[in-house]
Design brief:
The complex is a heterodimer of chains A (213) and B (467). Helices cover 31% and strands 14% of the residues of chain A. With 213 residues, chain A is of the alpha/beta class. Chain A folds into two domains: 177 residues, Aconitase, domain 4 (Alpha-Beta Barrel), CATH 3.20.19.10; 31 residues, no CATH class. In chain A, helix 3 links the parallel strand 2 and strand 3. With 467 residues, chain B is an alpha/beta fold. Chain B has a five-stranded parallel beta sheet, with helices on one face. In chain B, strands 17-16-15-18-19 form a five-stranded parallel beta sheet. The chains are: A alpha/beta (213), B alpha/beta (467).
């Protein structure tokens, strides 16, 4: 996983609440056995005109009314969104698709729980700001297309072009893992003795937890 | 200190804790074909093994065809995913219920059926509807593929302690009101993000009175309110259901287990971070009208006018939802016509659901222009239904009787809605495109789906004689 320290990038605004993971990456793309290559299918049904249900992506016409098809937002690495972003299914294909498309951070008033976790596992920073701060960013971006934001994870701030700064909160353990791009499985493996001890205690105290068959 | 059942299970599973993040031990890991291939591939690349293969259970459910399986899976990409699961299970020594095993079915239906799900456990699966297992008084939640890999390798998961929410279901349900109606009403009241960051405990006399099947329906949709998990404290209904199932404890171990399980319910003085009361004493059968499960009304209600919502974000969501659903504000819910019916899923694909639906369609015919399918949640549910003759009732009424799987709940297999088709579905998500691109999904109980099948529009099933 790539570390996330700071990001100075273009912002694309997606002005919809409750954007679910079926919308981020529809079912026909979940049949893959790889993590990569999903960027072309990000927001598939919104992004392409007459998107076929077979999951074809070549030769499709893009829908100009969808915000990511607006050339002004080409190359955006920050997605600005509304409340409850990423609700629904646990599919990690959603952050894989966002990452593969180029997004490294998502700013919203709130995120769905599993999606929020999945972002951290893939080096994407989900930033929760207050609803009126998010509103400010939407109007800023509407007024000045091409708006860039600076996100600094160490200081937990989002800096606007005016230098106005919004602070955000983040779990300290997640923050340090993301700053260093750490392999969490490797970290847990270092605690193998503690896991062994727990399992031993558990076998004595709750022997029924070993399946009967 | 007085503790809730959520606190008790949590405390019991903390291996170690650091800066508010616990390393939580996982008792059962359920695996399906869609969210696991990249996790097994990750293990292989790092040279890791599955730490506790005997606590890990795999089954294909999302991609499997619900028609004749003797010919295999026609879509080569789906077939590869299902084969990959079988290969991974073999290579890593994990129990696998193959597509042609009678015990195969939707992961959240078969784990309880096999006695794999037990009270007081932590249970995870790369699937958001893992909340279903909370019906047994376990802490069960959906995880992503990276977390699947983490659990396979270490049997643990780093987690921050969830906040606790009590959802008190208040009052006695009117006749014909089902747990599906309870949970849709709960989501309607607290919203599709109302439970974010919480684990919900459902309490109240009406919850106590539910069967295990009903409790599973209730907990299944906790995620649709944004909650990580939902659960119901175990009681004699729970123990009676589990006893004698293949993977359940036997003999002395059974006695020990039950004695422990009886200590799990929340202490009388325990407090929750938030408590919500949902009164069901005058609830009507629920039908969703929008594109999130909180956009719901009673069968006696009307499609709302978006302008009636004061919150601009809610208003905008309602406008977009009505445009997608092709609905006009003010339309009585009972006048909305449907052409497709889906009865099944991890929400409502168990035997009681099929019995309830069969009771409504018995002696009736599917309305003209309606196509309806019944997809049992597992091979064992299918066999039981056939033993009871339910399949004959469905077939005589003109409904299709299928093989088990996730099917049209998400349409990863060929079971999908055509564009603009309107469906009464017993599943759990009415998101845009969920059941097929531009498909229009209304979530309802099995009774209501069955009533819509025979009348061609939403109908209060209680008004049909004999049901």
């Amino acid at each position: 996983m790539d570390a996330f320290v700071t990001l100075d990038a273009l912002v694309a605004p997606l002005d919809r609440a409750n954007v679910d993971t079926d919308a981020i990456i529809p079912k026909q793309f979940l049949k893959t056995i790889r993590r990569t290559g999903l960027g072309v299918a990000l927001f598939y049904d919104w992004r392409y005109k007459d998107a076929p249900s077979d999951g074809r992506t070549e030769g499709l016409k893009t829908d100009p009314s969808f915000i990511l098809n607006d050339p002004r937002y080409a190359g955006a690495k920050i997605l600005l969104a509304r409340e409850n972003f990423g609700c629904g299914s646990s599919r990690e294909h959603a952050p894989w698709a966002l990452l593969d498309y180029g997004f490294r951070a998502i700013i919203a008033p709130s995120f769905a729980d599993i999606f929020y976790n999945n972002c951290f596992k893939n080096g994407i920073l989900p930033v929760s700001l207050l609803p009126d701060q998010v509103e400010r960013l939407f109007s800023e971006v509407a007024r000045t297309p091409g708006t860039r934001l600076l996100i600094d994870l160490s200081s937990q701030t989002v800096v606007l072009p005016s230098k106005e700064t919004f602070a955000f909160t983040i779990d300290p353990v997640r923050k340090s893992h993301l700053l260093e791009g750490l392999d969490e499985i490797g970290l847990a493996e270092k605690k193998a003795e503690l896991i062994d001890a727990y399992e031993k205690k558990r076998r004595e105290r709750a022997p029924w937890l070993t399946p009967a068959v | 200190m007085a503790r809730t059942i959520i606190d008790k299970i949590w405390d019991d599973h903390v291996v170690t804790e650091e800066k508010g993040t616990a390393l939580l031990y996982i008792d059962r890991h359920l695996v399906h074909e869609v969210t696991s291939p990249q996790a097994f591939e990750g293990l292989r690349m790092a040279g890791r093994k599955v730490r506790r293969p005997e606590l890990t259970f795999a089954v294909p459910d999302h991609n499997v065809p619900t028609t004749d399986r003797s010919r295999g899976i026609s879509d080569p990409v789906s077939a590869l995913q299902v084969d990959t699961l079988a290969q991974n299970a073999r290579e890593f020594g994990v129990t696998h219920f193959s597509m042609n095993d009678q015990r195969q079915g939707i992961v959240h239906v078969i784990a309880p059926e096999q006695g794999i799900t037990l009270p007081g456990q932590t249970i995870v699966c790369g699937d958001s509807h893992t909340a279903t297992h909370g019906a047994f008084g376990s802490l069960a939640f959906g995880i992503g593929t990276s977390e699947v890999e983490h659990v396979l390798a270490t049997q643990t998961l780093p987690q921050s302690r969830p906040r606790t929410m009590e959802v008190q279901i208040k009052g006695r349900p009117p006749q014909g009101i089902t747990p599906k109606d309870f949970i849709l009403a709960v989501i309607g009241q607290i919203g599709a993000a109302g439970g974010t960051g919480y684990v919900i405990e459902f309490t109240g006399e009406a919850v106590r009175a539910l069967s295990m099947e009903g409790r599973m329906t209730l907990c299944n949709m906790a995620i649709e309110a944004g909650a990580r998990a939902g659960l119901v404290a175990p009681d004699s209904t729970t123990f009676d259901y589990i006893k004698g199932r293949p993977y359940a404890p036997k003999g002395d171990l059974w006695e020990k287990a039950v004695a422990f399980w009886k200590t799990l319910p929340s202490d009388p003085q325990a407090t929750y971070d938030r408590t919500v009361t949902v009164d069901i004493s005058s609830l009507a059968p629920q039908v969703t009208w929008g594109t999130n499960p909180g956009q719901v009304a009673g069968i006696d209600g009307r499609v709302p006018d978006p302008e009636s919502f004061s919150d601009p974000v809610v208003r905008d969501s309602a406008k977009k939802a009505l445009a997608y659903m092709g609905l006009v504000p003010g339309t009585p819910i009972a006048e909305i016509p449907v052409t497709r019916i889906f009865i099944g899923s991890c929400t409502n694909g168990r035997i009681e659901d099929l019995r309830a639906a069969a009771k409504v369609v018995k002696g009736r015919k599917v309305a003209r222009g309606v196509s309806a399918m019944v997809v049992p949640g597992s091979g064992l549910v299918r066999a039981q239904a056939e033993k009871e003759g339910l399949h004959t009732v469905f077939i005589e009424a003109g409904l299709e009787w299928r093989e088990p799987g996730c099917s049209m709940c998400l349409g990863m297999n060929p079971d999908q809605l055509a564009p603009f088709e309107r469906c009464a579905s017993t599943s759990n998500r009415n998101f845009e495109g969920r059941q097929g691109k531009n498909g229009r999904t209304h979530l309802v109980s099995p009774e209501m789906a069955a009533a819509a099948a025979v009348t061609g529009h939403f109908t209060d099933h209680r008004t049909l004689s004999g049901s």
